[in-house]
Fold this sequence. Notes:
By secondary structure, this protein is α+β, with helices and mostly antiparallel strands. 31% of the residues lie in helices and 15% in strands.
Amino acid sequence: MPVPHHGAPTRRTARKPGRRVPLAEGAAYSHLSIKTLRRYGADGRITLYRAGRKLIQVDLDELDAIIRPVATVRDGAA
């Protein structure tokens, strides 16, 4: 039978609270559709959070992280 550990209490790793907003607000912020955000959540690109029974939220910090600059041709390099 395992003996319970009575040492120092363990600490949970504190995750920085993000800027979570409803999915529709995240879609407006990122200029992506709600359907695209749901797809990104399903394939693991972003994390979706359920708040209550129906409300799904997205972290704006994660949306900022997936947006990348587009490579462009520099002036005079044609």
